[in-house]
Design a protein that fits this description.
The structure holds 2 protein chains of 2 kinds. By secondary structure, chain A is mainly α. Chain A has helices at 2-22, 26-56, 60-88, 98-128, 132-172, 187-214, 221-234, 239-247, 253-276. Chain A has 9 helices and no strands. Residues 279-290 of chain A have low confidence and may be disordered. Chain B is of the alpha+beta class. Chain B is built from 4 helices and 3 strands; from the N terminus they run H-E-H-H-E-E-H. Chain B has a 3-stranded antiparallel β-sheet with strand order 1-3-2. In chain B, helix 1 packs across helix 4 (81-96). Chain B is elongated and about 50 Å long. The mean pLDDT of chain B is 81. Classes of the chains: A mainly alpha, B alpha+beta. Chains A and B meet through helix 1 and helix 2 of A and helix 3 of B.
């Protein structure tokens, strides 16, 4: 399958390239080469990532679960890359050995999963559900996944994260000590406590948000899903400005912690309202189906 | 309850079948990309074609090797009877049930 797909892209390139050279059009020949490289890259991505997922997941719930796992791993790797960046730029004073780097990732993962599981679930739903019928088939599975994700996050937060976070700090030994623990009773500690609970609620909020966005049937629904996916990935970043406001005592810590969830829940309600008011042309009489 | 297995047709697959039926002669992938006015992409058209062949909607045949050495032979595609019937059925369904076509 893989060879057959790539072979056809190469065959096309040969013909297109030869035809351009026969016309003495060097730029068209170069363009054909560039396009062929792009096409080969897309086929490679399909063969490596999409086809195995398709083979695993023949129905919507399994497709959602598979996509959620892939998205969670991908977002976790992004968080890992931040640690790699800190290592490379000398922000950590740890001894760089293979064992230490592996341990660093192991210690970081429980903390990362608390954030990446809800984000992965949301992007997984958006990736796997491309039409309202997919949402209808997958919604029970998504609710179950959200419950399981919340239990996993709760377990990680209560039992694993305190130990692994401490071990991470001890191992990384950040230069300047910017990974210090907030003093008990401080506004930072209070914010962190509320954020922990808000992240547990994120599983339900982001799953609902993704289902509502995927169910939108507007003509440009694919863009709604795309931007909803971008928003889901950017969800953890919302904690930063909200936290800054809380630390400056502009807003209460509980408000700052739950603000991202409130925003996403509101967006979900907007999507529901959008579908109910029938703004899209497929529900108006005599329209052309797309 | 056992459900009957009616082959599904995505919008891309429908477009490929319509192009092949309209063209009347076998087409190769890049030809379909050019004829589709950028609705098909060269990076994904062969994936779609391979999937359609697995579903029995189209058949393919390798062209003879190019006269000059160095090039790979291209594969040309034709719709099967099932593919023709399915695209016809979808077109009729879309006319009858515009409300549920999505």
């Amino acid at each position: 399958m893989r060879r057959r797909l790539i072979d056809q892209v190469i065959a096309d390139w040969h013909f297109e390239h030869a035809a351009a050279l026969a016309r003495h059009d060097q730029w068209a020949a170069r363009l054909a080469t560039m396009r062929a490289v792009g096409a080969c890259a897309r086929v490679a991505v399909y063969c490596v990532a999409v086809a195995p997922l398709d083979a695993f997941a023949s129905d919507s719930p399994r497709r959602v679960a598979g996509a959620a796992v892939v998205a969670t791993v991908a977002v976790t790797m992004v968080i890992w890359s931040i640690s790699i960046f800190a290592l490379v730029t000398g922000a950590y004073s740890m001894d760089v050995t293979i064992l230490n780097v592996v341990l660093l990732f192991v210690y970081l993962s429980p903390t990362a999963f608390v954030v990446t599981i809800p984000v992965g679930l949301s992007t997984g739903v958006l990736a796997a559900c491309s039409r309202p019928s997919d949402v209808r088939k997958a919604r029970i599975a998504v609710v179950l996944l959200a419950v399981v994700a919340t239990v996993v996050s709760l377990t990680l937060s209560l039992w694993l994260t305190p130990t692994t976070s401490h071990a991470y700090r001890e191992l990384a030994r950040p230069v300047g000590g910017e990974l210090r623990i907030n003093a008990p009773g401080s506004i930072g500690a209070l914010l962190e406590w509320h954020q922990g609970w808000a992240l547990l609620g994120a599983n339900a909020v982001l799953a609902t948000f993704a289902l509502c966005a995927a169910a939108v049937t507007a003509p440009q629904a694919i863009w709604v899903r795309f931007w909803a996916g971008v928003a889901s990935v950017a969800y953890p970043l919302l904690y930063v400005p909200a936290g800054v406001l809380a630390l400056a005592r502009v807003v209460p810590a509980v408000f700052a912690a739950w603000l991202p969830n409130v925003l996403f829940a509101t967006a979900a309600l907007v999507f529901v309202g959008w579908n109910r008011t029938g703004l899209h042309p497929t529900r108006s009489a005599g329209s052309e189906p797309s | 309850m056992k459900t009957s297995r009616v082959p599904r047709l995505s919008s891309k697959e429908q477009l490929v079948l319509e192009l092949l039926i309209e063209h009347r002669t076998p087409m190769y992938g890049l030809e379909m990309v050019n004829a589709s006015r950028r609705r098909l992409k060269r990076g994904t058209v062969y994936v779609t074609l391979a999937r359609m062949e697995e579903k029995g909607l189209i058949t393919s045949q390798q062209e003879d090797a190019p006269p000059e050495a160095g090039g790979l032979p291209r594969r040309v595609y034709t719709p099967t009877v099932l593919g023709r019937r399915l695209v016809d059925a979808y077109a009729r369904l879309a006319r009858l049930l515009p409300e549920f076509a999505r």
